[in-house]
Design goal:
Elements lengths: L11 H15 L3 E6 L4 E5 L7 H5 L8 E7 L5 E9 L5 E9 L4 H15 L13 H5 L4 H4 L1 H5 L9 H7 L22 H9 L8 H26 L1
Antiparallel strand pairs: 1-2, 3-4, 4-5
Pfam families: MULE (PF10551)
Protein name: MULE transposase domain-containing protein
Organism: Lithocarpus litseifolius
Length: 232
């Protein structure tokens, strides 16, 4: 159903559902301003109708935190989350994705789409809090078990983790050589905090969980907009 002038609905639930579908199709974010017995007043949070997560990231600290949380519903899997922080150290949600499991392939897919969406906004020095999981896909266990690397009969694959890491700039994957470019991001508490907000959604069906997450995201941006407007 396409929204148009003069269209009527039997109840407010149908109106909200139509707005949700429109928002997902056109990357718009609507909030309910006022509700009466016969009318529901909604408006786009951003007057330019740009995606807030994409457009707003350019004003955040150049550090992205990523994490995954378990889903406990009938269709189990993982909810991948990417977060940033603004100048006031407030949470800035960037992206969510539902995958079957945490692996190098799923994280690679998630991060590739995140990079394609945000584009050149992401600096070269992007750091990830949970870099160990993707590295496991190149047999990080070989590093932990020295005998596999040092043994006389070691296989060529046992050297893959070392080769993989040393092929990258050392300041990209070590805290001791990052030249202090942490931007006060010393923990992943910001992710744990937001995961707590989404805790009630982990047992929902996939479609309901996506709608729940989207609603939380819209409400969060709306509340932050009100706070900033009030401070001004």
């Amino acid at each position: 159903m396409n929204l148009c002038k003069g269209l009527t609905f039997t109840n407010k639930v149908e109106v909200k559902r139509a707005l949700t579908i429109l928002a997902l199709k056109e990357n718009k974010h609507f909030v309910i301003n006022r509700s009466t017995k016969v009318k529901l007043y909604a408006k786009c949070v951003d007057e330019s109708c740009k995606c807030l997560c994409i457009d707003g990231f350019k004003y955040c600290k150049p550090v992205i935190s990523i994490d995954g949380t378990h889903l406990y519903g009938k269709y189990q899997g993982k909810l991948l989350v990417a977060m940033a922080t603004d100048a006031n150290n407030k949470v800035f949600p960037l992206a969510f994705a539902v995958v079957d499991c945490e692996s190098g392939l799923s994280w690679g897919w998630f991060l590739q789409y995140l990079r394609d969406t945000i584009g050149d906004v992401i600096p070269d020095e992007v750091k990830f809090d949970n870099i160990m999981e993707p590295i496991k896909q190149v047999e990080i266990k070989a590093i932990r078990k020295k005998k596999k690397v040092m043994g006389k009969n070691g296989r060529e694959n046992d050297y893959l983790p070392y080769t993989y890491l040393m092929s990258e700039s050392i300041d990209m994957w070590t805290q001791s050589h990052d030249n202090g470019r942490r931007f006060e991001a010393m923990t992943i508490n910001i992710l744990e905090c937001f995961n707590g907000v989404l805790k009630g959604a982990q047992g929902l069906p996939i479609a309901a969980m996506v709608e729940f997450t989207w609603s939380k995201l819209v409400a969060y941006f709306h509340d932050r907009h009100k706070e900033i407007t009030y401070d001004l």
